Amino acid sequence: MTNTRPLAVVLLSGGLDSTTSLAIAITEGFEPCALTFAYGQRHRLELEAAASIVREYGVVRHVVFPIDLRAFGGSALTDDIAVPKGRSAEECYHSIPATYVPARNTVFLSVALAWAETLGSKDIFIGVNSLDYSGYPDCRPEFIAAFESLANLATKAGIEDGKPLKIHAPLLHMTKAEIVRKGTELGVDYRRTCSCYDPNPQGEACGQCDACTLRLIGFSANGLTDPIRYASSTGNTA
Question: What is the pTM of this model?
Answer without folding.
Answer: 0.92
